Amino acid sequence: MRQKRQAEPVRSGRGVFTRRALLVMAVQAGVLGVLGRRLYNLQVVDGGHLRQLAERNRTSKRLLAPARGTVHDRFGIALADNKVSWRALLMPEETTDIPAVIERFSQIVPLDEHDRARIERDLRHVHKYVPVTLHEFLSWDDMARIELNAPSLPGVLVDVGSTRLYPFKDLMAHIVGYVAPPNEEDVSKDTTLSLPGMRVGRAGIEQTQEASLRGESGSVEMEVNAVGRVIGEIDRVEGQQGEDVRLTLDSVLQQQVLNRLEDRVASAVVMDCRNGEVMAMVSTPSFDPSLFDSGVSHAQWNEWASDPRTPLVDKAVSGLYPPGSTFKPAVALAALKSGSVTAQDRFNCPGYYDLGGVRFHCWNRWGHGMINMREGLKFSCDVYFYEVARRCGMDPIKAVGNAMGLGVKPEIELPHVRSGVIPTPEWRQKHGFHWNGGDTVNAGIGQGFVQVTPLELATYTSRIASGRNVQPHLLRATNDQLSALASVEDVAKVDLPPDYLDVVRGGMFAVVNDQHGTAPKARLDLPGIQMAGKTGSAQVRRVSRALRESGHFNSMNLPWEYRPHALFICFAPYDNPKYAVAVVVEHGNAGADEAAPLAKLIMTDTLLRDPASDVRPAAPTVAPPPAGAETPAAPAEAIPSVSTAPPVADAHSEPGTTQ
Amino acid sequence: MKRNGLNTFGFLKSDRRLLRAEPDFRPMARLLQVNWIYVLLVCVLAGVGYIALYSAGGGSAKPFAAPQMVRFGFGLVMMIAVSLISPRLLRMAAVPVYLLSVTLLALVLRMGHVGKGAERWINLAGMQFQPSEFAKIGLVLMLATWFHRIGNERMGNPLRLIPPALLTLLPVLLVLKEPNLGTATIIGVIGATLFFAAGMRLWQIVLLVAPLPFMGKLIYSHLHDYQKARIDTFLHPEHDPLGAGYNIIQSKIALGSGGMWGEGYLHGSQGQLNFLPEKQTDFIFTMIGEEWGFVGGIAVIVLLGTLVMGGMLIAIRSRNQFGRLLGLGIAMDFFLYCAVNLSMVMGAIPVGGVPLPLISYGGSAMLTMMFGFGLLMSAWVHRNERDPGVEEDED
Predict the structure, then answer these.
(1) Which of B248, B269, B392 should be substituted to probe chain A, the one whose Cβ sees the most A Cβ atoms within 10 Å?
(2) How far is B15 from chain A (nearest CA, A)?
(3) Does B346 touch chain A (CB under 8 A)?
C-alpha cells in the first residue's frame, strides 16, 4: 500500500467531494424551495381561510347574566327582590399550590365535606382560566377577611353576585315561591342559565312567571389571548332584564290574615269577588323560601317533609277538603236550575232521613220541621238537602258546581294547583265502584266523595256574590302593563238567572244575620255593612251509628286528626258584594265556632283596607310601609308593626248566641 | 469549474494571490482571510432574530431580544477566535471534544433537567446547556478528522468505515434515549452526509440504503408513545385541536393570517395574543411569517439558504479533506436545523424541539451554532493548506 502510494500519488478525493457536495446542495436547495412553496400555499393561497380561523381564535363571546325581575304586591311592595351578595372564586391558573390555598381559605371561611368535593370536581373539569366557586353567599365579615388575607390566598377573588331576597319570608312563601340553582336539564334548554349565579323558579309565582322574570342574557364579544384572558372589548349586546311582576296580593292584608289564623293548620283566601283578584291567600304553617336559594339542608328538608301539618304544601290551592255544608248553596242552585225544586217548596225535617233502609241524620237530632230553601240554608238543614239532592240528581249538581268554580282547576298563576271533585255515578263507575242512592244524598251535604280546595271555595263564593264568572288570579301587571283580568267589565256573568242567585244569597244572609242562623259569630261589627256566609263542618271520619245513638258523641273529644274540618265561606257587603272570603281550618271541629269568627275578622280587615270603603274608622290607617332607607328588607320589618296595631273593629262585645 | 466564473461573495472568486504553498500563520494575516461577507450575513440573520424576539417580547427588548444579543456578541467573538485555530490543532482537539460531548450526553440522561417530558438540558455553572447541540459539532469534528486521516483511498475498505459508523451511532442512540427524535435524526443525517461526501463507494451506499425501510419499521415500534403521537398528530392534526395538534394548527393559522404582506410588525394577532405556543423559540418563524407575511418569510428562507450554500461553497473551496468535511458538516448541520424547524412550523413534519438557528431564543443553540460557524470559517481561512502526499485534483 505504502509503496503504491509513493509510486503514484493517490487521488485527493476532492473531485468526488465536489460532485457529491454539489448533489447535496441541490437537495438542500430543493428542500428549501419546497418549503418556500409550502409557505406560499399557507400564506397566500389558503390565507383567507386561515385568517378566518385566526379571527375566531382571537375573540370570545361571553354571556351577561340578566337581573331577575322582582315581584311586588299590588301596592308595589317588594315580595321577591335581588340583593347583592359576594362569592369567593378561585382562578386555578393564578396559583401554583391549589390545595394549600384551599386549606388557608377554609381557615377563614369553613368549607364542609360537600363543598370540598364539589370544588375538587370543578377543578378537574374546567379549564385553568375558568374560575371555580369556593363559597357562595359570603357575609360582609367573611368577604372583608378574605380581602385582608389576599396576599396569602393567590388566585382567590371575591365576586359580586346577587341573591334572591324574600323580605316576607314565610308569609308569601307559598305564593311567591322560591328559586334554586338550575339543573342540567334547565341549562340545556337555555344557555343563559349556565352563567354563574343564575336561578330558576321552583315554586309559586317564581316558577309560573319564569319566562317574564328570567330576562334574556346579553353578550359581550371580547378579544382574548390564548389562555382566555381578556385583552379588550369588541362588541356588547345588552340583555333584557327580567320583567317585574306585580301581584294582586295586598301584603298588609296577607299579614293580617296570617295573624288571624295564629298557629292553626288552616288556609284562607280573600278574593275581590268582582274581578277574581286574590287579595290574600294564606296557608299555615309555612316555610322560609330564602333557604332554597343557597340550598336547603337535608335535616331542614326532612323536617318539613315529615311534618303532618305539611308546611311545604299550599293548602289554599292544593289542599282537598270535603266542603261540608258550604256545598249546600251549590246544591240549591242546581236544584233551582234543573227545576226539580222551587225556592218555596217545603220539606219536613224530623231530624233524620231514611233512604233504602239506611238512616241519614241531620246535624240537629230534633229536626227543623217544615222548611223552605232559605230556611234550609239558614239552618243548614241536612235533611232538606238530602231531599233536594235526591230530587235533583248528581248531574245538575256537577254542572252547576263546575260552573260556579267547584271541581274545576282554577286558572291561577301557581304551580301544583289541584282540582276538586264533584262525583257523578259515571265518575264512580269509572273508578270501578257502584253508585248508591246514599252517595247522592251524602253529596247533597258536601260529604262523601265531594272534594274542593279553599281557592275553589273562594271562587265559588265570589261567583255567587257577584254573579260574574270571575277567574281567580294573582297577576295584576307585568312591567306595569295591567293584565286583561284586572278590569271588572271584562268578566262575563254566570249562566244562572239572577233570582236563583238572590235566593241563595238571601239564604246565606240569613245564616249570618237572622235569628237562629248557624253563624251568628260571623256578624260584622261595622256600621251599615252586612255579610252573607255559609258554615261547613266536614267529617273526616264516618261517625258510627252506635256512637251517635249513645248520645254522648262530641267530636271535640276525638283525637285532633279525626276531628271534622271547619269551613266558612262569606262575602260582603251583602247589598254590594266586593269581597269573598273562604276559610278552612283543618280539624277545627265546627265551622260555626272555629271558621266563622275567623272569617268575620278577616272580612273586617279586608273591608277596612278597601280604599273606597266609607267605613274607614278614625283609627290609624293601614298604609303600605314606607320604602326602606337602606335595604329592601325594611318592609318586612315594617309590616308586623303595622298589623300589630289593635284592630279598630275589635272593640265590639262578643255577640251573644241567639240560638 | 471556471476560475473566473461567478464572483459571488468571493466564494468562487479566483484569488491566485492567496494560493501559496505555505500558509501564513500570522494572526493578523489570518484575520484578513476571514470571509467577512459571510460574517456579515451571520450578523444579518442574528439581526432578524433580534427583531423577531423584540416582537415576541410584546414589543420590548426585555425578556428575549436583549439577552440574545449579548449571547450573539459572545458567539461572534468566539466564531472569529475559532476561525483562527489551525486545522492541525482542531484535529488534535477532535477526540477530546467528541469524548466530552458524548460524556455530557450520558450525563444528561442521568441528571438532566426535565423539560416537557424529555431530559435534554444540563446545568453547567448555572447555565442551561443542551448537550445534544454540542454533540453535533463534536461528531462533525470527529468524523472530519477520521476521514481526513484515512484519506479518500482507504474509503473503499469497509473495515475502515466501521469505527466512524460506531462513533456516529453512539451519540444518535444517546440522544434517542433522552428522548429527542428530531435531534437524533439530524445527527444521523449529518453523519451519513459526511460518509457520503468523504467518498464512500457507491456499492457501500446501496448496501446500506436498501435495508432502511425495514429499519424504519423497527424503529417505529420502539418509539415512545409521545413520539408516535407526534407522528399521528402530524398526519391528522385536526383530531386533537387542543392537545398535541394545537401547535401545528395554531402555527398554520398564524402563518395564514399573515397573508402576502403580513399583519405588520408587532401587530400579529396570534403571536401577540399568545395563541402561538413557544413563539420565541421553536415557532419564531411563524411569528415572522404572521407579522411580515410571505414576503418576509421567503426573505428569511433566502437568507438561510444563502448561508447554507455559502457554507457548502466554503467546503468545496477547501484544498484539504478535513476542511471540506468540516465545512460540509457544519453547513449540513445548519441546513438541517433550518429545514426541520421550517417544516415543523409549516406542519410538514412532526413537531420536535428543533430551534431556528440564530433566530430562536436560546443560549446553547446560539453558542454551539456560532462555534460551528467558527469551525466553518476556520476551514475557509485555512482552505489552502493541502493534504500532504496527495495530488491536487484539477478543479
Answers:
(1) B269
(2) 19
(3) yes
**CA closest to A54 among chain B residues:** B253
CA-CA-CA-CA dihedral for A491, A492, A497, A502, to nearest 10: 0
Residue pLDDT, tens place only, A272-305:
988 889 999 999 888 887 777 666 778 888 888 8
Where does the pLDDT of residue A270 fall: very low under 50, low under 70, confident under 90, or very high at 90 and above?
very high
CA A507/CA A232 separation, integer angstroms = 76
Tell me, yes or no, whether B4 lies in a domain.
Answer: no
The rounded distance, in Å, linking the Cα atoms of A639 and B3 is 111
Assess B316–A contact: CB distance below 8 Å, yes or no. yes
ipTM of the complex: 0.86
For range B193-200, the mean pLDDT? 89
Distance to chain A for B197, nearest Cα, Å: 5
Mean pLDDT of B168-193: 86
Distance CA A196, CA A137 (A): 13
Residues of A near B (CB-CB distance < 8 A)? Answer: 5, 9-18, 20-22, 24-25, 28-29, 31-32, 35-36, 38-40, 42-44, 46-51, 53-54, 57-58, 223-227, 231
Residue-by-residue DSSP string for A113-152 = HHHHHHHHHHHHHS-TTS-EEEEEEE-HHHHHHHHHTGGG
Residues of chain B with C-beta less than 8 angstroms from the C-beta of A227: 274
CATH of A62-247, one of 3.90.1310.10, 1.10.10.60, 2.60.40.1840, 3.90.76.10: 3.90.1310.10
Please count the structural domains in chain B.
Answer: 1
| Residue B388 forms part of a structural domain | no
Considering the domain delimited by A251-651, tell me its CATH architecture: 3-Layer(aba) Sandwich (3.40)
Which residue has cell 346577587?
Answer: A162
Mean pLDDT of chain A: 80
